[in-house]
Write the structure tokens for this entry.
Amino acid sequence: MPVYNEKVMDHFMNPRNVGEIESPDGFGEVGNPVCGDMMTFYIKVKDNRLEDVKYKTFGCGAAIAVSSMVSEMAKGKTLEEAEKITPKSVADELKGLPKQKFHCSNLGAQALNKAIKDYLSKKKTKGGKER
Amino acid sequence: MQKVYLDNTATTPLLPEVREAMMPYLEGVFGNPSSLHDWGDGAREALETARDRVARLIGADAEGIIFTGSGTEANNLAVKGLAMAQQKKGKHVVVSAIEHFSVLHSARTLEKWGFEVSEVPVDKHGTVDPEDVRKSLRKDTVLVSVMHANGEVGTIEPIGEIAKITRENNVVFHTDAVATAGTMPVDIKELGVDVLSLAGNQFYGPKGVGALWVRKGVRIMPIIDGGIQEGGRRAGTENIPAIVGLGKAAELARNDMARRIKHLAPLRDRLLKELPGRIKNVVVTGHPRNRLPGHASFCVEFIEGEAMLMLLNSKGVAVSSGSACTSRALKASHVLIAMGISHELAQGSVLFTLGIDSTAKGIDYVLETMPPVVDRLRQMSPLYSKFTKASKGGK
């Protein structure tokens, strides 16, 4: 499989942090199966930090590697730091993705950000109470 | 680790006998068949022997064979060349929705050149209804092109019935037989077609060589201009080693065909029957019975084909997929979509195409390897998670 580099292959073959979180603090879903890829991210927040990040991914090798990479990059970061993760920074951390995969499969950062927004909006409605 | 190659639709390996037949033309006999000296004679004899052998494979006359650089080129020459040669008669062409891109994109080019193209649909098994072809014919129809069998879902089309309709209506009929010629019996008299394409690397010949057979009296315009090679219908110095290889492969395929099919069909049937038995939510794509002898294709729900392909490769198994992610264009297979399969399910496309080297042991290995690969990807899939929660009665 020469199209993916070693690091992408490593994250595809041994994806980190796969799974779901029961009653997560934030949840984000992007993509849809019609266009090929779909990712769901679950986060647990403690003291403004991402204590746990989990995900499930429907998609190609790149989509799975991206999700894994995002989870690794985000875990332990503050919300502000995690919000700065972008498709570009994920691709850079993976040492590059094939050109045609950059847009369609690189949805991990977006899904994570959605989960963070979900957490923040829930927090707002609950009057700042942190679970 | 066991290595199991099940991607013979991409290309078959080269048979040692074919390689042997080619070697003299890579080493010693180097002449140009158009030359009038002894060097040219040697090459010309080889060229004409190959032409005879290819013709015999499909029960045709040698004069009708035009050698090309690939099956794709043969299809381009057929669709563009037959339409352009008849444009005074009319500018309407009929193709099926599941043709190979070399036919579909040639038809698209014809549209740019002022032709109109009608696409006939297929049913859920990928079969063309000959009556749909009849309905699509017009006074200005000059060409119908329907493939003999589809390489992605394995379905064999009712070419003989379509040929009756085109003959009644005096329309030229081309069939792309790249998936069938050399693999199963192909006889131009039985099929009743006017023009037929085939390719060497589908039946243990070399890559980069194909052929188009054109019935005597059918007019075709060349798409490559130059010298008078191939009766003026395909210019350019002939690729003698490859053509010799194609001829040898055709001869071997013809002599060995019954045995090959007897070997392949039971292995295919095991895959078709046992894989859906071992993995839930798997559907067979294409026709359940009327299909290519070595072709087993499926859609696996909730997961994507490229990921499946990569994990199988890591276990030593080579397959292919029609998922959007595996195509460079990132589009779901037009074949699966034309059969009414959803984009979501089409993402889980996987095809196993067997060859003469395939063994029962290899199929056992695939049947063992596939379930954990599918399970692993499903454990990661949000779609599967939604499905299992819904089927447990939760929301």
The CA atoms of residues 3 and 99 of chain A lie 10 Å apart. The mean pLDDT of chain A is 91.
